[in-house]
Amino acid sequence: MSGVERAFLNALDGLAYVTDGEGVVLRVGEPRWDEFATAAAAERALASAVVGRSVFDAMAGEEVRDAYRRIHRRVLDEPSGHFGFEYRCDAPEVGRRMRMSISRVSGPGRRVRLLYQSQVLSAVSRPWMSLFEPQRIVEWARAEAAVPLVRMCGFCQRLAWPPDEGGWVSSESYYRLGGPADVRVSHGVCPTCTHKI
Ligand SMILES: [Zn+2]
Known about the structure:
The protein contains seven helices and nine strands; from the N terminus they run αββαααβββαβββαβα. The protein is α+β, with helices and mostly antiparallel strands. The radius of gyration is 18 Å and the shape is globular.
């Protein structure tokens, strides 16, 4: 990658990275990426540690990985060479609306590259919800194997609730409907998001 390409990548807003056709990260927009990793206290996620790894390996849940693999393949194969969508990425005290765009770009020797860019569209503070604290969920799971399992959509973050009724609700509705806070979360993709993808 040339110096000019590197400068463009570093200048992009949000988290930006370039992968090869197989989804292996070749380079990331370093300043934003390292800001994000530092804020998340995730040293393993620093730009230097991400290069050379598959983007799919970092994703939680087989359905989410499958969905991204399909999108990746589609951007590689389709004439438009571009796909964009919105998704939710929530932290314990903030609900974020994000936009992901994936674009095909040509690299050296006409090798195909994909540019991934995710940007925060809006971030809203909200009451603390233990449901989104992975460490506590892990502790619960260890302490009590009988803790109920709730499925969460990795794209819109809605929850499959009540169980076995086929409905997907927001976290706010989940609590209103009496959903327990002490649960284990498994990631999936809801039918609405599967259809959109
Ligand atoms: Zn969804």
